[in-house]
Amino acid sequence: MAGGNNKGNREALLDGAKRCLLEKGFDRSSVRDIATAAGVSTAAIGYHFGSREKLLFQALFALIDEWGDKAGRALVSADDPDADVVERYVRSWDELIAQARAHPDLWLTSVDLFMQARRNPDLLPQLADGMRQGRTGSAATILSVPEDEVSDEAARTVGMVQMALMSGVVIQALADPEHPPTGAAVLAGLRALADLGK
Asked: How far apart (Å, rounded) are the C-alpha atoms in residues 144 and 56?
């Protein structure tokens, strides 16, 4: 049993790689670091994943899924049936920003994934698929419909803009923690942009 628990070596390695990514980032996470964090031998990495890079890529995608789950929970938890759509939207932003500030390493891992994808084109199809799923999920949450009812157009518009806003707002919240954005500021900014040219 790896690390004195009931997990197999594969799961232990994924957990160890995720910890290393959060603490050190992709480039500084060595085979020895990952194996030590997992409580297994370095040879187990090759056996289960083929290479350090393949293991770290899987761990990165697992962390991005966790990132997406946290973002989704922030939006869903703001879905108060007694609040109107504007109140829910503002509240969802406040909760999302609070999540980002509570778990900055998890959120910043997504930036690491994009950087690695630029260096390794083999990652791009997985990244593109994840982005498409994220756009659909974001649109479904904002429009209050099941994901299978989100049209391609809604995913390409509502979902795309919401995901772009999430990334940018979270980075600003982490870069300037003394003056983080608020849900009210996000909404005011969107309304001001929508009024351009009127």
From this structure: 35
Asked whether the beta carbons of 2 and 8 are under 8 A apart, the reply is yes
Structure tokens at 148: 């299978």
The domain 53-194 is placed in CATH, from the list 1.10.357, 3.30.70, 1.10.3470, 3.90.25, at: 1.10.357
DSSP 2: G
Distance from C-alpha of 72 to C-alpha of 182, rounded to nearest angstrom: 18
76-116 confidence digits (pLDDT tens) = 555 566 678 888 889 889 988 998 898 888 778 778 778 88
What's the distance, Cα to Cα, between the start and end of the chain in Å?
65
CA angle, 62 as apex, 111 and 77 as ends, to 5°? 85
